[in-house]
Amino acid sequence: MQLVIASFNTHKIHELRRCFRALLPECCILSFYDFPQFKPNLRPIAGAGKLRESECKISDEERLCKVGRGGKRGGKRSSVTSSICAGSAIGCKLGLNTFDPKLDSFEENAKAKALHAAKELNMYTLADDSGLVVPKLGQTGSALLYRYRHEKDSAIKQTKHLLDKISSFTEEERYAYLECALSLASPEGVITSVSQRTEGSLTEEERGKITFEFDTIFVRHGYRKTLGELSPSVRARVSHRKKALERILPQIEKLEIAKLG
Q1: Residue 26: Cβ within 10 Å count
Q2: Fewest C-beta in 10 Å: which of 66, 71, 122, 201?
Q3: Angle (CA) 154 160 163, round 5°
Q4: What is the pTM of this model?
């Protein structure tokens, strides 16, 4: 089975592919990088170890289960490649700079991303929308709007924006949670969606290495270190994205079984 991660975020793609290798290795995981006709304009994450584009593509061995070079299978253009080559408008619609629904919840955003990509690529897609919510800042929708207001800034600048915003908060008011929503879709519609939270609190100053926004100021309940201070193995174990994937995995496995049947 082929599944497209509907994202240009190199770190998200890398994390999800690593999870799939451990949880469902027989599933062929693609991303927007596996469609050479479409070249995304990535916004680098300042202060983070930038992944190479090649790290988000499938290997030559894995490539056997997708369309070959040039988008041909058996001498004919695949429907996937045809949909991408149909015109530059499709490429623009797939770009995160132009397709950005900004809905009122992570789950609704994930659904919109997954369904849009599934219809354009004519494939099963898995979309992620995630971020940090600080209840003291207001309703979830307001927190989302705050996040999007600074979305053009680097991860470091976004973290500093938030630190300034909560500088007068008490320890209790610094309660926050990371939320990840995953949505699975086919060209016919959204199949299922899940959401997973990791609760914790925000520190008064940054500590550790930043990969995703707010890594250096978020401490998970039961831990003393920020996410940015944890080792890669520990981070992978407590990842809210991994937990969300574990919840949606049974539905993906059903699609795999149906295809085999």
Answers
A1: 10
A2: 122
A3: 145
A4: 0.73
Q: How far apart are CA 237 and CA 18, in angstroms?
A: 12
Q: Do 250 and 187 form a contact (C-beta atoms < 8 A)?
A: no
How many structural domains comprise the chain?
1
Domain span at residue 36? 2-260
Helix (H), strand (E) counts: the chain: 8, 8
Q: Which of 60, 129, 164, 215 is catalytic?
A: 129
Output the six-digit token pair for 225: 């270190």
- Residue 206 Cα distances to 58, 203, 218, 226, 227, angstroms: 35, 7, 9, 8, 11
Name the 3-class secondary structure at 232: helix
Residue 129: active-site member: yes
> Which residue carries 């699975």 as its tokens?
184
3-state SS assignment for residue 250: helix
**pLDDT tens, per residue, the chain with 261 residues:** 899 999 888 888 999 999 999 999 989 999 988 876 654 333 333 333 344 444 445 454 444 444 333 333 333 333 332 222 222 222 233 333 334 455 568 898 899 889 988 988 889 999 998 888 888 887 554 556 556 556 656 777 888 888 888 999 999 999 999 999 999 999 999 999 999 999 999 999 999 988 777 889 999 999 999 999 999 889 888 889 999 999 999 999 988 766 644
